[in-house]
Amino acid sequence: QVQLVESGGTLVQAGGSLTLSCEASGSFDNINAMSWYRQAPGKQRELVAFTSKMVKANNADSVKGRFTISRDSASNTVYLQMNSLKPEDTGNYYCGAGFSVRPDYWGQGTQVTVSS
Fold this sequence. Notes:
By secondary structure, this protein is an all-beta fold. Helices cover 0% and strands 53% of the residues.
């Protein structure tokens, strides 16, 4: 079992920056990938970025050049640095962990709201 706790979501103005954190605990024996997803109201949850044992970092096209995922193995924390935020980045951001990019475990989510 893996427990994930996200933090850092808040209200921010367009063009601003924000860093989300995901603290993981538990057993990581079958965990190869950590990821960030987001879900806007009325829309499906979508992959934002992931890091794995094979791929250090990969981002969705919509956030390329603006968002950066990183991982601190010592503290079992995954970060999502978000720059040049846009109103369309608004949503609930979820941390995921799993054998593949599709998570087996989810956090509770943290809300990011970008005002125009």
